[in-house]
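can u pls check wat happens w/ fructose -6-phosphate
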Amino acid sequence: MCGIFGCVLKEGNAAPVIRSSLKRLEYRGYDSVGIATISDGKIYLKKDQGKIDDVHKILNLDDLPGNIGIGHTRWATHGAPLKVNSHPHADCTGEIMVVHNGIIENFMALRTELQNLDHTFVSKTDTEVIPHLIEETLKENPKLSFVDAVQESLKRLEGSYALAIISTKEPDKIICARNESPLVLGINGNGVFCASDIPAFLPVTNKAVMVNNGELVILTAQGYEIKKIRDSSPVSREPVTIEWTAEMAVKQGYPHFMIKEIHEQPETLRNTLRMQEHYLDLLTTFLDRANEVFLVACGTSYHACLAASYMFSKLAFLPTYPVYASEFIEQHGKSVNIDSTILAVSQSGETADTIAAVTCAQQRAATILSLTNVIGSTLTRISRVYIGQQSGPEIGVAATKTFTSQLSVLAQLALRLAKKRGKVSQDEIDSLEENLDKLPDIVDTVVKTQEEKVKQIAKKYKDSKVFFFLGRGISTATAYEGRLKLMEIAYIPSIAFPAGESKHGPISLVENGFPVVFICPKDDSHKTLIGNIMEMKARGASIIAVVEEGDEEIKTLADEYVEVPKGIPSVLSPIPFAVPLQLLAYYVALEKGYNPDMPRNLAKSVTVK
Ligand code: F6R
C-alpha cells in the first residue's frame, strides 16, 4: 500500500515535518523509509529498511537540510524490503527523486527499453522506471521544462500511482500526480503538503484539496496548481475543511478498521489484478509439474485454500489437498517427499503452524511455494517461489480484504494453469478473465447496496444463540468463512458445513427461529441447495440467503435475503459472496457492543503453535 508525503515550506526545515507525517502514515506500510530534500540546489537523501523510528535512531532523518522534500514509508510489493528497494528512487544522475504508491504494470517493458538506452537500475522496484523515464524524456527533448517532462513521462505509465517528484532542475517545486492510488493536498500559512492520506498533515492543517485521477499538481511555497495530465487543462479546486480528529482520520472517518478494510476491497482487488506476471507464471509452472499439491494454511487463509481446491480442480483439472497447517505434520509429515508441492497461504507469513508445516515439508525436500501479504516475512524466506497478494496492511484482527485478495490471486493462478494445460476452452477463459476484472466493481456494488440491509438483519438476529452457515461446492468455503467471522468478533457459536451434510446429523439442532445462512450462487448446486433450504424451513429455521440478484426462487423461500450482482461464475463467487458475511459479523458485533477490531483472546499474527 505505501504512504507518500511531500512538503514545500515557506520557513523551516522540511525533513522533521516529513518524518513525523510519515509516522502517521505507517499504518500503510513500514518495511522501509526514505526522505529526500533539496537545499541550495542539491539533493540530500537518507533511506533504509525498517520502521521509521528505528531508521531515524540510526540515521537521524531530521537533519536533512532544505525547506522542500518528499518521503515514503513502504509496503513491499515489487522487490524485497531492503535498503536498495527503499524510496525515494533516483535517475542515473541522482538529480530526480521519486516516491510512489501504486503499481506500474508496464514496468518490465519500460525497464528493458531504458536499459537498452544505457540507464542503470539498482533496485527491483517498478518505481525506479519513473525517474529514468523522466531523465530520458528530458534527454530526448532538452527544451522541455521539468514539469512538462514529468507530464510526458506520466502518459507512458500504465497502472496505479500517487507520485511526488523533486529535482534539482526546478528545485523550488514538488510535482505530484495521481492515477487510482490516493493523493491529497494540505494547505496552511507556512506551505503546502501532499500525502497519501489526510492523517499525515492533520496536526498542521485541516484544509485539504483532493486530487483526482489523471491530475498533476505543482506545489510551491506559494501554493498549488492542478492540471490534467492528458491535455494540461487547468483544474480549479478550493480546499475543504476536514472535521475529523486524528484518530478518525487514520480510519478515514470509519469507526473501525474492520469496516474500513471491508470498504477497501474494491481497491485491494484492483491491486491483486496487477500481479507480476512473472511470478504467476513461475508458480503456474511449478504447480503444473507437481505430483501432489497441498494447500496449507490456518483460519481464513485455510478457507481461501479450500475455495482454491475447487478452482484448481474445476479449471485446471489439478487435484489439490487443502490441509490445516496445524494438522499437516501429523497427517502428511511422514509421506510428504521430493515429489510433493506445498502452496502455503498466509497473510502475515509468520503464522507458527504454517511455518512449522512448511519447514517439515522443506526438510523432506518438497517444493515450497507461497502466497502472502508480507514480503520479507519468514514464509517468503523459506519459499522457493512466493507471490505477494498486495492487499496493504490489514489492521483489524479479523481478516477481510486479505481473504478476498487471496481468492483473487488463487483464481488467477488456477486460470493460468487451466490455460497452460488447455483444459478449458478459450471462450471460457476469456469470460472468466472478464469476470475477474469486473469483481472490484461488483464488490463495490455489494458494499454500497447491501450494507443497510445487512445492518437490519444483524439487529434482528443479534440475540440468536447459534447460527448455521451452509453452502454447496465452492460455497462451502464461503460458509466456513462467514461462520469464522461471526464467531470471532460477535462471539456467537456458529456451525458451518456443506449443506448436503445437514441430514447426516446437524439438522437435529434446528428448531423454530434458528438462523441458517445459505450461500446461494446460481451454479450447478442451485437446485439441490433449494432442497436443503426446504428441509431447514420445514423445521422452522429462519432462512437468511445470500443470493444472486433476481433469484426469485430463493428470495420467496427466504426470511431475509441479501443480493449480489448476477452472472458471477461459480469459481469466482466466494469473493463477492463473502462480503455480506463480513458485514453481518461486523454489525452483529456492534449490536452486541463489542469492538470488532480487537476480539478477545485473538492476535493478528499467531506466532505460537
Ligand atoms: C480470521 C483470521 C485468522 C487468520 C489465521 C491465519 O479472521 O484472521 O483466522 O486467518 O490466523 O493467519 P495468516 O493468514 O496470517 O497465516
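Residues 298-301, 346-348, 351, 354, 398-399, 484, 488, 605-606 surround fructose -6-phosphate (CB under 6 Å).
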